[in-house]
Structures are given as C-alpha cells and as structure tokens.
Amino acid sequence: MKFITCSVFILVTLIWTSSIFGYGVCTTEGGKEIKWQNPDATYLVNNSGGPSGSIGALLEGMQPWTDVATSEFVFDYGGTTSSTAHGENDGANIVTFGSLPVGTLAENRFWFRTSPPPREGEILDSDIRFNTYYTWNTTGSSGTYDLQNVGTHEHGHSLCLIDLYSGTDSEKTMYGSASSGETKKRTLEQDDIDGITYLYTCPNLPSRIEGTNNEYDFLQDAYDNTPNLGTFQSQATAFVENLLIDINKTVYVKAGYDCSYSNNILKSTINGDINLTDGMLTLESGTLEIQ
Ligand SMILES: [Zn+2]
C-alpha cells in the first residue's frame, strides 16, 4: 500500500506539461490507474476549525462530480465525526481542518493497493484537510478562500484526477492553484467532466425507453422505437443530432437523468434542431434545451 499527497498550492507553479488529454489521472509506478473499485465514496466531516456553513459548502463541492451524467461515480456524505485523522488508512474518508505547511491550501492524502493484480491501484482510503493557516469562507467573498471552490478541486483528487498547471488549464477545476475570492473551480469544465467520465464511465447509454433495457446513443433512435403513448428518457448530457418527429404517434420524453436513470434533476441538451412533421412529442419532466 502506498500513500500519496496531492495539494493545492497558492503560488502558480510553472510546470508545463503536454498531453493529448485535457485531464490527468493518477497511476501506480507500474502504470496502472489508481481509482476506486466501486464508483462511490463516502466522506465524514469534522467541521471543527472550519467556517460556519462548512458542511453545506463541502457537500456542494462534491455534487458537481456526482451530477456528471456520463459518469456513474457518486459521492456520499456519511455525517460528522470527531476524528482528526488525516492520511491514516483507517477505513474512513475524513474531511478535517488543521495544520498544513504554509503555501498549501488543502491536500488530499490517500492510500491505494500496490499489489496484487488485478487490485493494484485500488483506492482504500482518502482524507482531505484544509489548512487553518488560511481563512476560509463559504460565500466566495474576496480576501479569503472559498471552501466549496477548493473542496470541489480536492474531491477531484479523490476520484483520482491530478493537478494541471498549464496556462491553458487555468479555468479547470483541476488547475493546481487557487486564489482568494476565487469560485471558478465550483463548476466543472468539459475536461474535468471528461476526466471523471474516463475513470468511471456510465455503463448505461444516454437514452432509453422508460421501464425497459432498450438503450440508445441517440434520441432519434429512442423516439423511433418508443411505442405510441410511450415515454423515453434522456440523461443530462449533450446529444449532437437533429431530432425528426415524423411518425403518427404521441410520445413523451423525460429529460435530465443521471447515469442510473434514478433522478432527473438536471438538463439534457440537443446540439441541433427538433423538426416536427407528424405526431406529437411532449416533455413530461426535466429540462430539454436546444442549442
Ligand atoms: Zn490539487
């Protein structure tokens, strides 16, 4: 087993890397990806030393990763703890506020298996600490550091995405430095989404006929195969297609689902047109945006 630290530094470190991907993943010395065996992780929080509203801000920092529809990964909140353990392989993933070297805003320390195959690289324990040398806020106010902003970044390390330092990475959640008053890491950029999707790809296709296992890559195929008065569902992702409603039937759509089709709290997007020449398509729930 091995132990790794990932930190967010305040100062911009001028390390220029080149990669064909816009994200980076952790690997073992043998080159195997480091990740959770199951696509979920539960975190306990010890909010002692944090600003008021810490727990809410930390949960907000987890949510964007859970909400990526093209990934099946889910972060869960396990409640509060009095433990101050940081970097201990104790089977509990814990968020704490405490002392860290000056210059480090926060860090994620995690343990993973170095052997045997095929479990090499499996994450066993991940702890996050915020440095109380710095002043934290939950509002994005200037002069101090936004907990949700840095928390979203640290939970990216939990997945195991790595810091990025190229100038072209500066808007991404996984950019390896943060400023006071900054909130831009709260929302994921497409490369952050691509990173979690690469590691924890959703096993379900992005549209399906409700109540069946008939799943499709395109809304057109879902529409074509849905019977009269039937319903198809779409995940919260972008569909690049033109949708033609041309069959003499009435079909309902429920949009914005997560990977498991259990919640539709988000938005599906069509990068294209919807043309209706026959029949009817009715949005029954969720948001379907045409761009
Ligand atoms: Zn980092």
Write the layout of secondary structure elements.
Layout: E1 2-9, E2 40-45, H1 54-66, E3 74-80, E4 93-98, E5 104-112, E6 123-131, E7 136-137, E8 145-146, H2 147-159, H3 190-199, E9 207-209, E10 215-216, H4 219-225, E11 231-235, E12 238-239, E13 243-257, E14 267-270, E15 274-285, E16 287-290
Parallel strand pairs: 2-3, 2-4, 4-6, 7-8, 11-13, 12-14, 13-15, 14-16
Antiparallel strand pairs: 1-5, 5-6, 9-10, 9-11
The structure holds zinc ion.
User: Ligands in the structure?
Assistant: zinc ion
Share of helix, binned: 10-25%
Strand portion: 25-35%
Give the helix/strand class.
alpha/beta
Query: Averaged pLDDT, please?
Result: 91
* Number of separate strands: 16
CATH domain class of the largest domain: Alpha Beta
Reported by name, the CATH topology of the largest domain is: Collagenase (Catalytic Domain)
User: Strand order within the widest sheet?
Assistant: 1-5-6-4-2-3
What letter string, H or E per element, gives the SSE order?
A: EEHEEEEEEHHEEHEEEEEE
The general outline is: elongated
